[in-house]
Design brief:
The chain has 374 residues and is α/β, with parallel strands linked by helices. Helices cover 26% and strands 22% of the residues. The protein has 9 helices and 13 strands. It has helices at residues 5-17, 21-33, 135-142, 144-151, 183-198, 213-224, 246-253, 284-294, 357-366; strands at residues 78-82, 94-102, 105-113, 122-128, 154-158, 201-211, 231-235, 270-275, 299-305, 314-320, 326-333, 340-341, 350-351. The protein has an 11-stranded mixed sheet with strand order 1-2-3-5-4-6-7-8-11-10-9, with helices on both faces. The protein has a two-stranded parallel ribbon with strand order 12-13. A hairpin with an 8-residue loop joins strand 9 and strand 10 (314-320). The longest helix is centred in the middle third of the chain and has 16 residues, at 183-198. It is globular, with a radius of gyration of 20 Å.
Length: 374
């Protein structure tokens, strides 16, 4: 880590408190890339800048909405949805584009449809990309579509446009994007349900995962909609409620965020991956994600996972509930930074030295369903 990192982040906090958000953004960028801020300018931020102070929701149409959001326990009613026609069961796999809108906003998406779709209900994995990424980049880097082709499940990639956040980050750190029935969580939940209605998807086996800002939003979705998502995967992300504005987000990224509310009851089973040399999102956030899911009283087992073929070693922590069931896993990847473990060189922000986060997430997901949690 650059020796001036702490000083630059402290400078960013002071500038934020003084209201100079442009200068604060420049200081954040410089701290995370390991240099000094450019004079009188702010260049394009990279993936390390999860936070963008100009993040905003896409303005809605001036026309009166046809419907409004329903109660907090149900999906927001779509005002408009465009979903491509379903392939026939005999067709091969496809990667199709669509768009979804409800009272909370509009987002486009890509949907991977596996071979023989429609022949039987299949699982669905919702994948939330990191900053500066898009659906195609994230799909290529994680190789999730390849796994879906081999194992038989759908993959939904909601897309965050630059109109909603200039760096295409999910707005995990804003209070109006952290709750059930509001903002981006409501859009993604509604999109998930609409895809489920249009395709032969098993409603008991719907999962959500993400990287970085996408990982933080995946944790929010699991917390907000436990009756929809059977399990969650959080890679290099942050816990729900750890930040509500820019100063608290800066603190959380440095590993000293707000206390995470203790889970009152059983949360959504969650698997967490985090590199122990992540200089963008402090590794302490991995434990906070688990705490938000299972609370602080779960029994923990620790195992060493040796890397094979010169891959990275890991420490895997297993969290059991009073019945002895594994309700969370936390993978501490030794020597890894801020990137998808085991990803391919075809996408951005991947670490080909493993372990294979895609394979391990899928294993964990398919061990859980809404039925097994009842």
């Amino acid at each position: 880590m650059h020796p001036g990192f702490q000083q630059l982040m402290q400078q960013a906090t002071r500038l934020t408190q003084a209201g100079d958000l442009t200068a604060a953004t420049a200081a954040i960028q410089a701290a995370l890339r390991g240099g000094a801020p450019a004079a009188n300018s702010v260049s394009a931020l990279d993936e390390s800048n999860i936070i963008d102070v100009q993040a905003r929701e896409i303005p809605e149409s001036t026309e009166a909405p046809a419907t409004t959001a329903t109660t907090a326990t149900t999906a927001a009613t779509p005002e408009k949805i465009v979903t491509p026609a379903r392939p026939s069961p005999a067709s091969g796999d496809t990667f199709i584009a669509g768009s979804f809108r409800n009272a909370a906003g509009q987002r486009s998406y890509k949907l991977y449809v596996p071979p023989n779709a429609g022949a039987r209900p299949m699982p669905l994995v919702v994948m939330l990309h990191g900053c500066t990424q898009d659906a195609d980049d994230f799909a290529a880097g994680t190789a999730m579509n390849d796994a879906a082709r081999a194992q038989g499940f759908y993959v939904l990639y909601p897309v965050q446009p630059p109109q909603a956040n200039p760096q295409k980050c999910w707005n995990w750190f804003k209070h109006n994007h952290q709750q059930q029935g509001r903002g981006e969580p409501a859009i993604i939940e509604g999109m998930t349900r609409s895809v489920m209605e249009a395709h032969a998807i098993d409603p008991q086996r719907v999962y959500v995962a993400g990287l970085s800002a996408g990982g933080a939003m995946a944790a929010i979705l699991a917390n907000a909609y436990p009756g929809l998502y059977a399990a969650a995967g959080v890679h290099s992300g942050l816990a729900p409620g750890v930040a509500a504005d820019l100063p608290s987000a800066l603190a959380a990224m440095k590993g000293s965020g707000r206390p995470v509310p203790t889970q009152a009851g059983p949360g959504v089973p969650t698997i967490v991956f985090h590199g122990d040399r992540d200089a963008t999102v402090h590794p302490n956030n991995a434990q906070a994600v688990v705490t938000a899911c299972v609370g602080s009283s779960a029994q923990v087992e620790t195992r060493r996972v040796e890397g094979v073929n010169n891959k990275r070693h890991s420490t895997k922590h297993l969290y059991r509930n009073p019945a002895g069931d594994i309700v969370a896993e936390r993978w501490e990847i030794h020597g890894a930074g801020h990137a998808w473990a085991g990803g391919t060189a075809n996408g951005s922000y991947t670490d080909q030295n493993g372990p294979d986060a895609t394979a391990e997430m899928l294993r964990f997901f398919l061990e859980h369903s809404l039925v097994t949690r009842q």
